[in-house]
Design goal:
The chain is built from 4 helices and 7 strands; from the N terminus they run ββαββαββααβ. By secondary structure, the protein is α+β, with helices and mostly antiparallel strands. Strands 5-6-7 form a 3-stranded antiparallel β-sheet. The protein is elongated.
């Protein structure tokens, strides 16, 4: 069975194999491509075998992080360990957040407004957390 859906990014109709599928093949490929740009630039600051952003989060929280907790860099920069750029969440929440952000990044890229994404990523992350009721601790 197939469904005719409208792509969230390009607004073109496409044949979907799931009723709730939101992206056409081309736009899905764009989200994957833009996502891999970030994945390939993970240059976290390492201090004697520990990652600096995790040490900062532990110091602020006053406890060790659980094994399933992730310290997320809000601006996507692994070297910006400023407190206002860090958020702690579960691995599952982190995955969901990146799925959302990848789609928004592709949408902004497609519309030629990449600057909008960069300027508003923190607001979008906070709004996503509110709307989805996911637990995120902004440091």
């Amino acid at each position: 069975y197939t469904f005719t859906n409208t792509c969230f990014i390009c607004q073109n109709d496409f044949k979907a194999w799931r009723k709730r599928q939101r992206l056409c093949k081309e736009c899905r490929n764009l989200t994957d491509e833009l996502s891999s740009e970030t994945t390939n630039t993970n240059n976290y600051i390492n201090i004697k075998g520990d990652l600096e952003h995790r040490l900062i989060a532990e110091q602020i929280l006053g406890r060790k992080l659980f094994t399933d907790e992730i310290v997320h860099h809000i601006d996507d920069s692994p070297v910006n360990n400023d407190r206002s750029n860090l958020a702690v969440m579960s691995r599952i929440t982190h995955g969901k957040l990146h799925l959302f952000l990848n789609v928004v990044k592709a949408f902004c890229h497609y519309r030629g407004s990449r600057d909008f994404f960069v300027r508003n990523i923190k607001n979008m992350t906070e709004q996503w957390a509110i709307e989805t009721k996911e637990i995120i601790v902004f440091l």
